[in-house]
Amino acid sequence: MIVGVGIDVVDVARFKDSLERTPRLRERLFTEEERRLPPLSLAARFAAKEALAKALGAPPGMRWTDAEIRKEPSGRPTLHVKGTVADVAMLLGVTSWHVSLSHDGGIATAVVIAEAP
How much is the average pLDDT of 42-70? Predict the structure, then answer.
């Protein structure tokens, strides 16, 4: 059963400017592992985190770093949650995630589907 669906788009150039203008933004939004990625990848991951929040109903108090988008050896993105995000997901019965990332024409896009049994 689908509990929620979220989608988000990010203007890559504007996001890159925000990262340069506000150096601590990387620490607030991304895990240590994610911070090593280039701005294009970070924009897609930020879109995924926004989409995740939408899929969960945008509950207050969620920490951005409690969600991490990782890549399997095949290149497929996966979503790993802990802390505040895991707590909300557990309340909603979410047991699995589906994530899709894309970027083209200066726009990064992400879709997140939260699923329960």
Answer: 95
